[in-house]
Amino acid sequence: MSLRSEPGLVNVPGWEPYPWLLAGFSTREGGVSTAYAAGGPPEQNLGYTPQEDPLQVTTMRLRLADALVQLRPAAHAAGVRPYLVTVRQCHSGRVCRVERSQLPLTNEDGSAILEGDGLYTGDTNLLLGVLTADCVPVLVADKRTHAVAAFHAGWRGTVERIVERGVEALRKQFDCRPQDLIAAIGPSIGPCCFEIGAEVREKFEAQFDYGCELVPEVAGSPHESARRGSDSDGRVHLNLWEANRHQLLDAGLRPAAITVIGECTACARLPDGRRKYFSHRAEQGFTGRMLSLIGAVAL
Ligand SMILES: [Zn+2]
User: Fold this and answer.
1) What is the pTM of this model?
2) How far is the CA of 128 from the centre of ligand 1 (A)?
3) Cα-flanking dihedrals φ and ψ of residue 240, to 5°?
4) How far apart are CA 74 and CA 89, in angstroms?
5) What is the CA(28)–ligand 1 centre distance, in A?
6) Rounded distance from Cα 194 to ligand 1 centre (Å)
């Protein structure tokens, strides 16, 4: 296997000490997809998008899962083959519990059966996955019970407080304690590029008492609109990373337990100038998907 075709993967810094924990965020690199490559090297599109060959997506998903296992020597040595579960995403605040007894949880074409925007489980040898191309993937794990969760938080899911709901579900279902939880906020559209209109801004300000803090300030400007990053049309930039970090803190996680990867899917570039991630906004909807995965293995 050539080095170029290795699945591009962003690991969570600081999660190395957990041999039972598989977790990572895919990038555009590696893979065999030419659908959005524009003549460049093949890419890793992990979504069953209209332009993509579904068999290739399934192959690339399995390779990404294998790559995660290989990063954990004990899991690799044990021959662990975790089962991937995804969810039919609908920009909601709904989180779904997954149990091994429910498998396969997919249709014959590989598409997901569960509908919602978050998955959580207390079972091992499952990989929970959410698909994104600008929206925020959030991964959560419990160091004590080994329960895990994955959330898809676009602006709608963030307003629906999907991450807070998800942590609440972990507490209720598995007696998780917030002080035992670790979380990672993955590559997604950053405050640098996420421009919103007045309607979305009002939703955030109505829903969160810290809503106005999510609109980054432009330092030194005397005008209220400019100070809050607004242009003449009232459009502002929204910080979805901070919005979801705030929800994790409100759910009781310690600040040091939350890792923000901090890479923007709309503007991060590889050294050769190609896009590092698929970006729905930057590519006007014609693009692939990243897959963010988390699972616990029984060792
Ligand atoms: Zn950006």
Assistant:
1) 0.94
2) 27
3) -70, -25
4) 33
5) 16
6) 7
Q: 211-215: which pairs have CB atoms within 8 A and are 24 or more residues apart?
A: 213/242, 214/238, 214/239, 214/240, 214/242, 214/243, 214/246, 215/239
Domains, the chain, with CATH or none? 3-177+184-189+258-296 (3.60.140.10)
Dist. CA 2 → ligand 1 center (Å): 31
- Using the mean position of ligand 1's atoms as its centre, give its distance from the Cα of residue 143 in Å: 32
Task: Report the separation in Å between the CA atom of 205 and the middle of ligand 1, taken as the mean of its atom positions.
Answer: 22
Q: Which amino acid is at 160?
A: E
For residue 105 the two structure tokens come to 């949880």
Query: Cα separation of 202 and 119, whole Å?
Result: 28
User: Look-up: residue for tokens 């920009």?
Assistant: 91
| 61-101 per-position pLDDT tens digit | 999 999 999 999 999 999 999 999 999 999 999 999 999 99
Contacts of residue 179, Cβ cutoff 8 Å, sequence gap at least 6: 252, 253, 254
CB 188 within 8 A of CB 135: yes
Buried b / exposed e over 82-104, threshold 16 CB at 10 Å, is bbbbbbebebbbbbbbbeeeeee
The Cα–Cα gap between 45 and 30 comes to 9
Q: What is the 3-state secondary structure (H, E, C) of 208-265?
A: CCCHHHHCCCCCCCCCHHHHCCCCCCCCEECCHHHHHHHHHHHCCCCHHHEEECCCEC
Q: Rounded to the nearest whole angstrom, what is the distance from the C-alpha of residue 257 to the centroid of ligand 1? A: 24
What is the Å distance from ligand 1's center to 215 Cα?
15
Over residues 240-270, the pLDDT tens digits come to: 999 999 999 999 999 999 999 999 999 999 9
Say how many Å lie between the CA of residue 190 and the centre of ligand 1.
5
CA of 58 to the centre of ligand 1 (A): 29
Stated as kind and residue range, the H or E segment containing 296 is strand 290-296
